[in-house]
Amino acid sequence: xxxxxxxxxxxxxxxxxxxxxxxxxxxxxxxxxxxxxxxxxxxxxxxxxxxxxxxxxxxxxxxxxxxxxxxxxxxxxxxxxxxxxxxxxxxxxxxxxxxxxxxxxxxxxxxxxxxxxxxx
Amino acid sequence: xxxxxxxxxxxxxxxxxxxxxxxxxxxxxxxxxxxxxxxxxxxxxxxxxxxxxxxxxxxxxxxxxxxxxxxxxxxxxxxxxxxxxxxxxxxxxxxxxxxxxxxxxxxxxxxxxxxxxxxxxxxxxxxxxxxxxxxxxxxxxxxxxxxxxxxxxxxxxxxxxxxxxxx
Lengths: 120, 167
Fold this sequence. Notes:
Chain A is an alpha/beta fold. Chain A has four helices and five strands.
């Protein structure tokens, strides 16, 4: 049964290739829905996923809670010898990265193809 | 003339092609439980208020995010607080001809010991810092007052000739 939180955010893991998983996000990432994202990132880390590509094309809202979770994901994946990369943020979301300076921390790509090309 | 409007006043009728100028002051007040599931409600209300003031899309989104951050900050403090009384957040939007003033007042008791707010999880610390940074950048003025009984945040976004958007 779909929870109330999942009604505003949908997180779908999509295997890409060995050790790489895409997380397709749809909706709003805020203090209420962000635990879904956090849990899925943790699930992937526990499974041994090394690279997570977080798709933001369908994310309409992203606040500090979501940013904190993405930062946490970047750190965790880096500790595992991998990386968390962001794909396709809207101009609005990209603007948030710019004004907070997180554009220097996040690896952001316009497409999954570009993100995959950067995986070492 | 001041008019009191409550958030239950459903005067939203979808997107309007014409936004008449604000010529007097109105106050829209919403009180929500200080819990995560109602932050979206607060954002929807402020979206409706700001959209009627002639702000640009980016400015409306700036205000929406800033109000959301203030509410999120209250919720984080409530979750960390040993106070078992249910807290509330009151968002009071003062619609004025040249500015929108949004007051976000919560009833989250501030713990007497700072160790109660020890956030050893770096993710939460980052979020709190980012939230404060976003509020500072997204609106024109921010003031914050904290007391033992709660915190009062005041956000001001200029409209009309004084308006600015984050570039």
